[in-house]
């Protein structure tokens, strides 16, 4: 075989030019519209004659005609007998023909030789379909041990065939961009045959100690140590090549997330960084939706096993929980007028999340402002209030320092968890409060459990649970809260976020999808809120484009779904031991 191999290689190199015309044969030319036609038998006879000529040693014509008739002619064209043995690499394929005799076997043999090494190197999606068809010819007219089914092939090769799906990831690239606070964050571009899919990662201002690691550079000379070049490099140099090499498809969200977790190899994603991993995970989800040809919320719902009809979430505008977007927005602007009239124009400058920060003396004064704004907007009874206390920020030595802004606060005035709980209960009796987030420190389990059993409102764990299934399980066991704040960057993958939501709902908790203080224009969490049907979303005030972008996406989804969606209202909120009504349907 050594002599033959050398000859084959030389002949193959010399044949590249003569194959150029055949390379131009488009897929539409191979299988144009039309059936087999009345001349099928004549064409079959002609093909047989060509095979006989080959067996007699006759020379093949220099060039073949381009056939633009029907499927049968195209088949005869590619099973003719005028192309000689060209490439030793095809010898392995010939083994499958051993034992085949007669005209049919010869025609199949010549079909294989027609695929030159040059064509293989320059193969396109159209030629991939042609290869599938030729392989099918090796196996006869029925099923085969090679896995080809001609019934499926007939479906694939309809009169107007489309290219086969290529769900593989072809490229992943990360870069450093800026979030809404001007801090660096990670952006990831992921490429498939469908195009480019982009994801940007948010970051928190007050972060729980149990959150997955947000990898920062720590170089004070660059962005005050907040650069993310290490996380970007981890995507480009580690995640990208390994993920592409894995061959995983973008529709395999769970498998890809598990692959990323294993690649990191730490319990808190401290090696690669949750910000690096999450960017890839979100981009994969977006690409998966495109591959399936469905909206992102539908794809995410499929991943979570959620069936229609979909539920549109109740928006939580910063500290205002509105029953509708218009109502919440009108109240927000009314509040702006109330604050401006009382504290001056400087008091209506907005913070990171679009909320106002007037110089009030305490929580009571803030709540009174909200109640006044609700009344003046004409929505008394229709709007409720939710609080995000972030108590871990003023927890000191087992006590709570309510004067924490004063560097010289008196330690003798710090209060216990039970005393703080009594203050909250007083607020719930005086104001229309239906939800309190992080009322206690992230590790003050005793205070959490005491308060949850003492009230009939929603108690939400953020720093307590950090979207981590293990922390959620502990909170369920201790009956520490009845609501979960879900932040995808706290855990680092979409699959784990879905798992966290499902675990919380299994115990009758409410679930609120949330933004972070350092946000981007990415609207992923809007689709996630609709997909999971949790009924609550918190993504800032109706101001600042990175906040409004999420609300606008919900409006688009609402328009798209029409009557196929319902509005959650207050049905997504838990109340003491009462599970959200949304879970009872």
UniProtKB/TrEMBL annotation:
Reactions it catalyzes: (2R)-2-phosphoglycerate = phosphoenolpyruvate + H2O
Bias type Basic and acidic residues, positions: 61-75
One Pfam family from the record: Enolase_C
InterPro entries: Enolase, Enolase-like_C_sf, Enolase-like_N, Enolase_C, Enolase_CS, Enolase_N
Pathway: Carbohydrate degradation; glycolysis; pyruvate from D-glyceraldehyde 3-phosphate: step 4/5
EC number(s) recorded for this UniProt protein: 4.2.1.11
Any single GO BP term: glycolytic process
Cofactor: Mg(2+)
Magnesium as UniProt keyword: yes
Coiled coil location: none
Domain Enolase N-terminal positions: 169-300
GO terms under cellular component: phosphopyruvate hydratase complex
MF terms (GO), sorted A to Z: magnesium ion binding; phosphopyruvate hydratase activity
Enzyme class: lyase
Region (Disordered) location: 1-79
Domain Enolase C-terminal TIM barrel: 309-575
CDD domains in UniProt: enolase
Family: Belongs to the enolase family.
Record protein name field: phosphopyruvate hydratase
